[in-house]
Hints:
The structure holds two protein chains of two kinds.
Chain A: H1 4-11, H2 15-48, E1 53-58, E2 65-66, H3 69-74, E3 79-91, E4 98-104, H4 106-112, E5 117-118, H5 120-128, E6 132-136, H6 137-143, E7 150-155, E8 165-175, E9 186-189, H7 190-196, E10 203-204, E11 206-211, H8 217-227, E12 235-239, H9 240-251, H10 254-283, H11 285-293, H12 298-327, H13 332-335, H14 343-370, H15 373-379
Parallel strand pairs in A: 4-9, 6-8
Antiparallel strand pairs in A: 1-11, 1-12, 2-10, 3-4, 3-7, 3-11, 5-8, 6-9, 7-8
Chain B: E1 3-16, E2 19-32, E3 36-40, H1 47-54, E4 62-67, E5 70-71, H2 77-87, E6 88-91, H3 103-108, H4 118-131, H5 147-159, E7 165-169, H6 177-193, E8 197-201, H7 205-208, E9 213-218, E10 221-227
Parallel strand pairs in B: 3-8, 3-9, 6-7, 7-8
Antiparallel strand pairs in B: 1-2, 1-4, 4-5, 9-10
Helix pairs in contact in B: 4-5, 5-6
Amino acid sequence: MKYLPLIWSGIWRKRGRAALTALQVLVAFTLFGLLQGMKSGIDDVVNKLGADLFLVQRANGFGPMPLSMYGRMQAVTGVKSVTYQSYLGGTYQKPTQQVFAVACDLDSELVTFPDMTVSKQAIEAMRQTRTGVLVSDSLAHKYDWKIGGRIPLESQTKRQDGSGTWTFDVVGTFTPGDQSLSPDFMLMNYAYFDEARQSDRGTAQQYYIKVDDPRQGLSVARAVDKLFANSSDETRTQSLREAVQTDLQSIGDLDFVIRAVVGAVLFALIFSTTAMMAQSIRERTAEFAVLKTLGFSDSRVFWLVLSEVLSLFIAAAALGLGLACWVLPAARNFTHLNVTMPGSVLLVGLSMAAVLAIVTAMLPAVRAQRLQVVDALSVR
Amino acid sequence: MTSAVSLVGVSKEYKRGGESVAVLNDFNLEIAAQDFVAIMGPSGSGKTTLLNLIGGLDKPTSGQVSVAGERLDTLSNAELAHWRARHVGFIFQFYNLMPTLSAARNVELPLLLTSLSAHERKQKVAVALELVGLTDRAKHKPGELSGGQQQRVAIARALIADPTLLICDEPTGDLDRHTAEEILGLLQMLNRRYAKTVIMVTHDPKAASYAARQLYVDKGQLAEQSSLTSV
């Protein structure tokens, strides 16, 4: 601690250069935090998905399936519960205010997704109100929706009267559980939605199956698919975790992109900051010589230089990672996943900053360490 | 009086462009403790090299250098650094202060190598700054001080660890006459009142007259010695 003023004054000897170096590190680690944070956040979301939850979709892709399949799936051995969902996408007051509504049978939904937190009053209110919706906490907060309010949504999904305007009554809020991929959505009564829509009536977009024993999940999935094999509604049943991973892979090799971008940025950072630090140390040759004259040993001067660079890098990286933490929730708009920065990314980021600082400082620090006092002072 | 500095058969050569250049040849010198010695001589005569050897900043090519009872020519670089921190204070022509540190922080630098607490260091810094008359400039940075004030800060820094030996390389070379006399008076006071051994290189006979003894170095040899009744 006693060397802190000396280290601090060394860092800010040339304010412009120090600020520029800090800015480079800050930007690099903000980017690292955002990309790695998003990746780890997505992994985190995926890992939280229960192994006992399975998604049933059309074998040939995304499309409606008859509601009559519901009872047949329930009868499959090993199935604990089944629920079905259809979806309504729409916009609230502006085209940018996109809202996602899930049409479901609330009772089977709550059995299949038991980690969802919703009050009994809200459940009862949904049962009593056909046009009622339960809004997730964050969505309600986002648009300042209150219980008792009416929400008009403009959608491409037409009502029977040909209109695209859907109006709902907010009857309660809920907190999505770990099984929910998105934090921002609302639940509506399937019965109301199905009755009111113009097309695809009597169908569900997806079924979710909860199995009794996750170890038997694969055989249950096969049994479901076998049940509908060679019919016009062939199914593909896979664990929710697997389904989400497949969806994400369809975007591209996220791991490779992140590694490539972060690697390139950090590599460029090493070059630019090493040059800056080397110049800074060269300019302070006489000052290091004076320190050595006063009795600072070669190794102490080495550690001083290293400490300067470490302090600068770690402080700037911490700011950058902090900024990424702050910005990361905005990634929800792109991923629709509840992404938050895991603590491990912060730790890895700070460790990387330390390693980069050591690599950057090594050459200038060794140069300062080897500095001959007599030669350096004679330069003056 | 005991010997503070003893050089016996000291030679120093530098390599310049593949050739050896002898700066000091078989140099012998004794300086008593609490002495105030001025070293004079033409440029390139070996004065600064002599100071560097006495101050433990450089090692002789051959011969023995003993200062404060320690054989410096046998010490490693790390041992020399440790020795300098305890035994010697340096005062340079161009002050060599850290431009981004305040006067107080500059003076404190040698104490960072000790185990003193922050409070103890602060107290010692205050005493040293008071001694050189700069208490009211403690928080000023070197750029905000005059040349004379900067040299006073440098003297306070040289004194702070209470060394027995003060080594001054042209301490008044960058100062006007009046300020130079103030600095020389301060060095003389440190020698007389605080029993510091002062070794000063100077080109200025007036500055040299503040010393108790003058040495003339020429072509790497001790050319002449004279004792004075100082100013």
